[in-house]
Amino acid sequence: MKKILSLFFLLLAVLSGIAQISELPQQKIPADYGYIVEIGQQMPDITMELTNGKKVSTADLKGKVVMLQFTASWCSVCRKEMPHIEKEIWHKHKNNKDFALIGIDMDEPLEKVKAFQETMQTTYPLALDPGAEIFYTFAAKGAGVTRNVIIDKTGKIVYLTRLFKEDEFREMVEVIDFLVEKQQQ
């Protein structure tokens, strides 16, 4: 009887995982997006230093829904997208301990990143990316900077964006809301 119950619960867990995956959009990533990571892949091991000096690693983010936003002060599309991220994602989820949003600034010095954040009037954490090492862990050399990576609580990449396309952004917000809600259940 114990074996039957164990098999039943294992089957239930597998079906639950399949159901969650099927509830997310089945995203096809165009080759011109320049990603070297894929949907379903585990988040690469990285360590980031925030502008306040705190270090955050992949291990620290495990068990959270994570949004990594790749940005730079010179990027006009980033500047267009950041107020939407602040208002529609960060303000909604910033007090949820099971959610993390980190903007990763591509290869700019600390003072420039701090000034950029002040100019943009964003309050979500920004991390430094000297030499764009973190960026090139996710994207090909020469790929453009405006992009977002959404990671589920198991550490799997579940959604990728490129540039600021309103439909894609709205879908990303829905994915984050869905994952955060699932996290709380």
Structure description:
With 185 residues, the protein is α/β, with parallel strands linked by helices. The chain has a single domain, classed as Glutaredoxin, CATH 3.40.30. It has helices spanning 2-23, 58-61, 76-93, 110-120, 135-138, 166-184; strands at residues 47-50, 55-57, 65-71, 99-106, 126-129, 147-151, 157-162. A seven-stranded mixed beta sheet has the order 2-1-5-4-3-6-7. It starts with a helix and ends with a helix.
CATH superfamily: Glutaredoxin
Estimated helix fraction: 40-55%
Q: In whole angstroms, how far apart are the ends? A: 29 Å
- Topology pattern, helix = H, strand = E: HEEHEHEHEHEEH
Supply Rg.
Answer: 17 Å
Number of strands: 7
Q: Average pLDDT value? A: 90
Strand coverage percent? 15-25%
The CATH topology is what? Answer: Glutaredoxin
Structural class: alpha/beta
Strand order of the largest sheet: 2-1-5-4-3-6-7
Question: What count of domains describes the coordinates?
Answer: 1
Q: Report the principal-axis shape.
A: globular
Q: What oligomeric state do these chains adopt? A: single chain
CATH class: Alpha Beta
Helix count from the secondary structure assignment: 6
Unreliable spans are: 4-21
Write the CATH architecture name.
3-Layer(aba) Sandwich
Q: Tell me about the largest β-sheet.
A: 7 strands, mixed
